Predict the 3D structure of the following.
Amino acid sequence: MKKILFLLLLAAFILAACSCGADQETGAQTPAASPKAPADMDAVLTSFGLEETMLVLTREEMLFIYGFEDADLKQASAAIHESGIQCDEFVLVEAVSEQAADRVEELLGLRLKQKENEMRDYLPEQYDIITKCSVYRDGLYTALIVSPQAESFTKLFKEAIG
């Protein structure tokens, strides 16, 4: 029951964000060149060349959706597919400390598991994509990259953070 309530609230939140005219990144469907500022999570996300159907989340939306503590985040950038039926999701975080990065990694792992559970019986082809994705962590940097091109995007993320 709690899962259903959470999913309904999440769907309502996403619809509200759509109706508010949230900023959207546009671009190609394949990864672009690496950004010039290696530690800038917004630049890294932009380098992914997001489709128009991706919603770029505000910091407040990230705190709500992922359960992050604001004090744990030095910088963060995220985007999700506006439809709710496509699994594409990007969350890039630089934490303020190793302990904060541990918490972020745990929360992103829970989010990935939640996406798997949502799509397992509902959309098997999306579930297959999700099962090939993972949370990547390198020091204070953590990323959840869910996409058919996750490997390419993860490579860009790794290059950007050095």
